[in-house]
Write a structure and sequence with these properties.
The structure holds two protein chains of two kinds. Chain A is mainly alpha-helical. Chain A is 65% helix and 3% strand. Chain B is mainly alpha-helical. The chains are: A mainly alpha, B mainly alpha. Chains A and B meet through strand 1, helix 5, helix 6, helix 25 and helix 26 of A and helix 2, strand 1, helix 6, helix 7 and helix 8 of B.
């Protein structure tokens, strides 16, 4: 690589395998280029030399190469012709997951190298200068520290599993290489996001993952709904990116630095609790609400389920949507200086957790349930990083990546089976993702059934599954901060911080109850009770092949025992607080600053909190088992419309409609009728330009008397005139 | 490389050669028209093909010759590079003075490199009056290059007008349905804009003559010896401002652009967008601001211009969003992008000015590519209306891929040229003019809205219309001419360092000159221009 500056010398990682850190993102980039080239090679059929001849009908054969693959979420085309595998399927299946596996292997090697050295200081590898302008030196530089390492392991590890799953799931899709090209590109940008040593490089990843998300949501672009969803995701994310940009501008204007080390060195220029640092953090958080789907910008994520299901698992559950949580953990130094901003983060997170959970109660599309669940769980993570429990927030990010990836891939297996069954019975009418059309699948898909129950227990917070450990750490931290901390002493909109934090705790508990209910509902309606696919289709239901179930098993294991990575003190089933200690060098000081003025919870309080949380989770599951009757469900086409509050929930509180009426329509119509037709065409052109044109026409009439109208003559005269003018060169004085 | 160029004495002849070669080419083209008298249709077609290759060769030689500037120009020097000066009309104090700095060098390279692509873009679509068409393109090239090189105000003006006339004719003859309206509008707008500038140039020249009462139009001389009362400076600046603001175009002087773009043939649109829109901002950088730095630094003037720039940024993006015609959409997006350039220039920080220069180049590459792409589907489908398309990624995957990449660069996705420019403009402007930068930054949202919406309606969505199902994908010529632009998009986005280095010193001098100036409007104050 081009080295402008030597790698930080003297860092204990300097001579280890860590010097190949640049390979981590470059490997998936190579995968993208190769798969992209294969995709183009297979799809491209270059046109004739004179394209204007096209409309004379010489090239009618061009349409022969068109696949008519208008899928919703299916790898299997609806037409009844036998599917033809892509001609490069074998090569692509090797490259796509292969580069991820290599990247993961390297990440593991670097992880072990890091474990054996002192990581008090981050290891920064400057690759080349990017935007060097005067006193602003922005380099393309990568940073390894415990936090970025955690993210890298999650991205490459879960990423590898999902790539492998995709080999089975997408095998019959005509866009197979394009799919893996996008997926590899996504991993490249995601790694750049978490490895960037400064905000601009991070922003490259930040927008890059949004771009890939856009491309993958609209992967089956021939369906307008999918293309709409992709576009919506990009534009809503751009609102958040605007916040990210402004935060960077504020940082640079006030500290003169944009790299993490430079900001830390100049942190004195930002007074504690001052307006500037608060504004910086709030603008960053605006970015988070976009990327991580929090109120008010969460609206794109449920629509993003239009993409292939493995994409939902990787991008819209395990990695990209957690980038906001990473951003705050990465900026913990700033957020710990801005209690008001931190309180805002916790409050918005708590509200989102509860709000999204209520919507999840009444969704029928299995992926929509999981989408709102993701929004809700991301809310928990923001509660965690909002109250300065950075390790708890990031740990929930990790465990959520395990169990939510499992849930999505599991739902992918279900949809895969449903599609196969519908395909075999030539059923083109029914929705393969609607739970009302499922039921009783446990008999046909026992492995998926067991694994998804593990994930359900984890997300519901049943001890000792992974989700219990991480969610409990967050709720405990909220309660602890409410009792005493710099946040409790601050206030937001005139409400004391401690009151707000107790409210956030209550939201968290309520959301936990709803989570247990809607997840159990999903499991009951999908796997339990009688089968509603119809007898014909039922005989075709079966478990997915092992290339898909294999990754599920690994994720099931992680979901079950992931909590061991960070066992709390009261659960000494092994070494406790490993994860906390790992992240200590990155976020320890910030946590301490926020927690200042409070103490650890009393043992009895802590036990009471845990007891409450567990009781609520159990109650939720029990409630769902008692109240919900899968046997009473009828297939989608026979279902009566819902009414009352259930209808409001089913329609997601009509938030999309409200945004459309309040923002989108006014902007579009205002631009069209006021700015364009009014100002441009009406005033500027109508009044001024055409006024002058009238004048010019009068003058032109005089001029026309002098003109011959022969263009060739004009050109000759012009050329000769210019030559004569410049010909004065030869005149020597 | 530089040693090799030195042995050729490259710097001493390159600028006049770059100016004269296209003119000689134009003469050769017209001569070819006279000699190759058309016989049978096959012979005529053969002659046309011969002509196309000849013109492409001329532009290719021009581009190759100009490439040496990359090495030969010392951008750190504060004196003019590749300087060339000969007497022209001594009695009136006019000289043929040519020279470049880092800023001009980059724009010259943009011009010489875009021209062959513009010719290739119209390779098969222009079939009528081919000789005149190519002759005009060649003369136009001289005019544009002359603007970037001139160090004599009168020479600059001649070049300025020289590029106006051929473009007027290109639109008026080879344009679309409403070409006459569009070309007239273009002509009137720019003419009315440049007339006050001519008066101002004459005034300056006469007022800053030597001790014998001879006028002087030498840029350096005026820079060193010009001296005007503050109010006079304001008027002179205003005269330049009108000419340049029309060319940029700044809101509300922009309405010629959508019409001109829509009606112009592909090559015309590409040249307009990629090169001619840079004339206005270059005029500000080279003439209007350095000659009257006090005016540019004068807060009310600055505030007014920044306001117009930011209105243009947001307004252009919003109006682009609702255009049914793809060419108009791109035209309005140009209004928005060029607003960024003006914002960067008048925000007067080193980052913002450097950013403005990058936006200039980035816009040239990306919008040039967009117009080429529009031309390509127009040639197949004879429609510019977005609603006539839909789903064509199925039949034209290569076209769809390239259009997506170019659109993303226009949106300013990081990793592409568009991001680097906008980012530098905004971060630099935020230091000096935070409110303006904040409003301008909202354009990142609207830009995504208008281009992605258009993209969806053109290449995504169901492929329903039968006319679209038989569209052939791009051919080798089209892919080949787009590849250099794609390369430039990524290169400027990922590794803009070398380009930033080129413009670094010129930008720093520019900012320094303005920062150290002020305008004293009290009665009788006579401020030296320096």
């Amino acid at each position: 690589m081009m080295l402008q500056e030597p790698v930080v010398t003297g860092h204990p990682l300097a001579d280890t395998v860590a010097q190949y850190v640049w390979l981590l993102p470059v490997l998936p980039l190579i995968g993208f280029l190769l798969n992209g080239a294969l995709s183009m090679k297979a799809a491209a059929k270059l046109g004739p030399n004179d394209p204007s001849a096209a409309d004379h009908g010489h090239h009618g054969s061009a349409s022969a190469g068109v696949h008519d693959a208008d899928h919703d979420d299916a790898h299997i085309s609806h037409d009844d012709h036998p599917v033809v595998r892509h001609k490069y399927a074998g090569l692509v299946s090797l490259i796509g997951p292969g580069v991820l596996l290599l990247s993961f292997g390297l990440a593991v090697a670097i992880f072990f190298a890091m474990r054996s050295v002192d990581m008090a200081q981050p290891y920064v590898d400057t690759l080349f200068r990017w935007m060097p302008v005067s006193d602003m030196k922005i380099n393309v530089a990568l940073q390894l520290d415990p936090l970025s390492m955690v993210m890298v392991l999650v991205i490459t590890g879960i990423g590898t599993l999902i790539h492998i799953f995709s080999v089975g799931y997408m095998q019959d899709d005509p866009g197979y290489p394009r799919y893996f090209a996008y997926l590899n590109l996504f991993v490249f940008f995601m790694l750049l996001l978490v490895l960037g040593a400064n905000y601009p490089v991070m922003f490259v990843g930040w927008e890059g993952v949004g771009l890939c998300s856009y491309l993958l949501i609209g992967f089956w672009f021939s369906d307008k709904a999918n293309a709409d969803a992709g576009k919506k995701a990009f534009i809503v994310n751009r609102i958040g990116d605007f916040g990210f940009l402004i935060a960077m501008f504020l940082l640079f204007a006030n500290t003169g630095a944009l790299d993490f080390a430079g900001i830390a060195a100049n942190i004195d220029k930002l007074p504690v609790g001052g307006a500037v640092v608060t504004a910086i953090c709030l603008f960053f958080f605006l970015g988070c609400t976009g990327k991580s789907a929090q109120i008010p910008l969460y609206i794109w994520l449920p629509d993003a389920m239009a993409g292939p299901t493995p994409v939902s698992a990787l991008i819209h559950a395990a990695t990209m949507v957690t980038a906001g949580v990473y951003l705050i953990a990465r900026s913990s130094l700033l957020f710990s200086l801005a209690p008001v901003a931190s309180l805002t983060v916790a409050l918005v997170g708590g509200l989102t957790a509860l709000f999204a959970a209520t919507i999840g109660l009444k969704q029928w599309d299995i992926k929509k349930v999981l989408a709102y669940s993701t929004v809700s769980q991301l809310g928990y993570m923001f509660v965690g990083v909002g109250v300065g429990a950075y390790t708890a927030g990031v740990f929930h990010l990790v465990t959520h990546a395990f169990f939510k990836a499992l849930l999505f891939l599991g739902s992918g297996s279900v949809i895969f089976a449903m599609h196969a069954a519908y395909h075999a019975t030539h059923n083109h009418a029914d929705d393969a993702q609607d739970m009302r059309n499922m039921g009783g699948l446990k008999k046909h898909m026992p492995v998926t059934w067991v694994l998804m129950w593990i994930a359900t227990l984890a997300i519901a917070g049943i001890p000792v599954f992974s989700g219990f450990v991480s969610k409990d750490a967050i709720l405990g931290a909220v309660f602890e901060r409410a009792q005493g901390s710099t946040l409790a002493n601050a206030s937001l909109l005139g409400i004391p911080g401690s009151t707000l934090l107790y409210a956030v705790y209550a939201f968290g508990l309520a959301a936990a109850l709803l989570t247990a209910i809607y997840m159990t509902r999903m499991m009951l309606y999908t796997f339990h009770g009688p089968n509603r696919t119809g007898a014909d289709a039922e005989s075709h239901l079966h478990e997915a092949p092992w290339i898909m179930t294999g990754p599920l098993v690994v994720l099931g294991l992680l979901s079950a025992v992931g909590g061991w990575l960070n066992l709390p003190e009261f659960l000494p089933l092994g070494p406790t607080g490993v994860f906390d200690k790992w992240l200590e060098p990155v976020v320890g000081a910030s946590t301490a600053r926020i927690a200042a003025g409070g103490g650890a919870l009393a043992g009895s309080t802590e036990q009471a909190l845990i007891g409450t949380a567990v009781a609520i989770a159990v109650a939720g599951i029990a409630f769902a088992f008692v109240r919900l009757k899968p046997a009473a469900l009828v297939p989608k086409k026979d279902s009566p419309p819902s009414f009352g509050f259930a209808k409001v929930l089913e329609n997601k509180y009509y938030v999309d409609e409200a945004y459309d009426k309040a923002i989108v329509q006014p902007v579009v119509n205002g631009s069209k009728y006021i700015l364009w037709k009014g100002v441009d065409v009406g005033i500027i052109d109508g009044l001024f330009v055409n006024g002058s044109a009238l004048l010019a026409r009068a003058l032109g009439w005089i001029g026309s008397q002098l003109q011959s109208g022969q263009i060739g003559t004009y050109a000759w005269v012009l050329v000769l005139g210019v030559i004569a003018l410049l010909g004065a060169f030869v005149r020597v004085h | 490389m530089n040693d090799f160029l030195t042995t050729l004495n490259y710097n001493s002849w390159i600028l006049p050669v770059l100016l004269l070669l296209p003119l000689a080419g134009a003469a050769a083209v017209l001569l070819h028209g006279r000699l190759a008298a058309a016989g049978t249709p096959e012979q005529a077609e053969g002659a046309r093909h011969q002509l196309r290759r000849m013109v492409l060769a001329i532009f290719a030689i021009e581009a190759l010759l100009s490439l040496g500037l990359w090495w030969s120009v010392d951008t750190t020097s504060s004196t003019w590079q590749a300087y060339f000066s000969r007497a022209w009309i001594p009695m009136w104090g006019m000289r043929i003075s040519l020279g470049v700095d880092g800023i001009a060098e980059m724009l010259i390279l943009l011009t010489t490199l875009m021209m062959p692509l513009a010719v290739l873009g119209g390779w098969t679509s222009v079939k009528e009056k081919l000789h005149t068409y190519f002759a005009l393109l060649l003369v136009l090239t001289t005019g544009m290059l002359g603007v970037f090189m001139s160090l004599d105000l009168m020479l600059f003006f001649v070049m300025w007008e020289l590029m106006l006339v051929p473009m007027y004719m290109i639109i008026g003859i080879w344009g679309g349905q409403r070409r006459l309206y569009a070309s007239l509008k273009f002509f009137i707008y720019t003419m009315l804009g440049s007339m006050p500038m001519l008066v101002a140039i004459l005034f300056i020249g006469v007022k800053t003559g030597d001790s014998f009462g001879r006028p002087s139009f030498s840029y350096d001389w005026i820079l060193a010896h010009g001296s005007f009362a503050a109010h006079t400076q304001l008027w002179l600046f205003a005269a330049f401002f009108i000419a340049f603001a029309v060319k940029v175009p700044m809101w509300p002087f922009h309405t010629w652009l959508p019409d001109a773009h829509v009606e112009a043939p592909t090559a015309g649109s590409v040249i307009l967008a990629a090169i001619m829109l840079k004339m206005g901002t270059f005029g500000f950088l080279r003439f209007a601001i350095p000659l009257f730095p006090g005016v540019a630094a004068y807060p009310p003037v600055r505030f007014a211009i920044l306001t117009l720039a930011v209105i243009g940024i947001v307004y252009g993006a919003l109006v682009a969003m609702v255009q049914p015609d793809f060419k108009k959409l791109v035209a309005y997006s140009s209004v928005s992008h060029m607003g960024f350039v003006i914002l960067g220039i008048f925000a007067m920080s080193v980052q913002s000015v450097q950013g403005a220069l990058i936006v200039n180049l980035a816009h040239g590459v990306s919008t040039g590519a967009l117009f080429l792409l529009v031309g390509m589907i127009y040639e197949r489908r004879h429609s510019r209306l977005i609603e006539d398309y839909g789903g064509i990624a199925k039949v034209m995957p290569v076209f769809a891929t390239i259009l997506t990449i170019v659109s993303l660069s226009s949106i300013g996705v990081p990793g592409t040229n568009g991001f680097v420019g906008e980012f530098l403009v905004l971060i630099g402007s935020f230091r000096t003019q935070p409110i303006f930068a904040l409003i301008a930054a909202t354009a990142v949202i609207f830009a995504a809205a208008y281009l992605l919406w258009a993209l969806q309606r053109i290449i995504y969505n169901p492929l329903t219309k039968p006319e679209n199902k038989i569209l052939p994908d791009l051919n080798w010529r089209e892919v080949g001419l787009l590849l250099p632009l794609l390369f430039a998009i990524i290169w400027l986005g990922v590794y803009p360092g070398p380009v930033l280095d080129k413009t670094r010193d010129a930008a720093a001098r520019f900012v320094h000159r303005v920062e150290t100036s002020s305008l004293d409007l009290s009665v009788g104050a006579n401020v030296e221009i320096r």
